[in-house]
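Students often ask why we bother encoding 3D structure as a string. The short answer is that it lets us treat folding as translation between two languages. Here is a chain of 278 residues written in the first language.
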Amino acid sequence: MSEVSYFKTMPVSGSELPQQNSCVMLTCILQMELRVIAFVTKLITSLGLLGKVHAASCVQSSSYVVEGDHEIEQQAGNLTFAAYNSRFAFPSEESGSSSSLFYSFNAGGIHFVMLGAYTSYDKSGDQYNWLEKDLADVDRNVTPWLVAAWHPPWYSTYMAHYREAECMRVELEDILYEYGVDIVFNGHVHAYERSNRVYNYTLDPCGPVYITVGDGAGKFCWDQQPEYSAYRESSFGHGLLEVRNETHALWTWHRNQDLYNRAGDQIYIVRQPDMCPV
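And here it is in the second language, the structure alphabet:
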């Protein structure tokens, strides 16, 4: 049994803004390189104490995780995600989900939707039906910000995993656009990239901003940057999302090698509910 640890919970929905959410990836609230989870899980399994030391780095934060390809770990009898399901807790039941692979939660003025890229996402499946109901139930007066996260990015200009999640995009992009998702966080690609607001590969002021924080050393697909790609860099790093009020959030990405007061990429993400009603 592990030692007892303590942490401060996220503010309740409807709390006054501003709020901060760390986006190193989805292990310590929104970590976007889910290799971290696989790494920690395998360390706990094979290296005992060393793995626990790495896992302990997250115990003082509210942690919400979403599965990546490394967590599939297919076993006898087609069993998958065994270690993932055994080591992490999910508010699935509380959010009306039938699976640990997709769920939602509120944190202050933000409604987070965690989606499964490695389970069924077609329009006749459980995840799609759950997502449609979950988004329809969001009260934007209580949680004005809507943030989604899953592992492989839909919009990426890197060679690795290029358009790998295109089938998922075709199935789910319309519903995320319809309900006005503001920001999407992804990992998988070992690089950093932030998009302009985009929908169906076209610049759209009502589309989400897509941010891939899988930081590493990826190669671009081509030298010229498409319009939807606002900034990209293959440096190791981490990011911080600061929700300042109901319409403005500050996103800052830092290179790991830089001093903290030096930002590699920084932008205000602005909601325009009058232009983009939901």
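Translate back mentally: The longest strand covers residues 248-255. Keep this in mind for the problem set.
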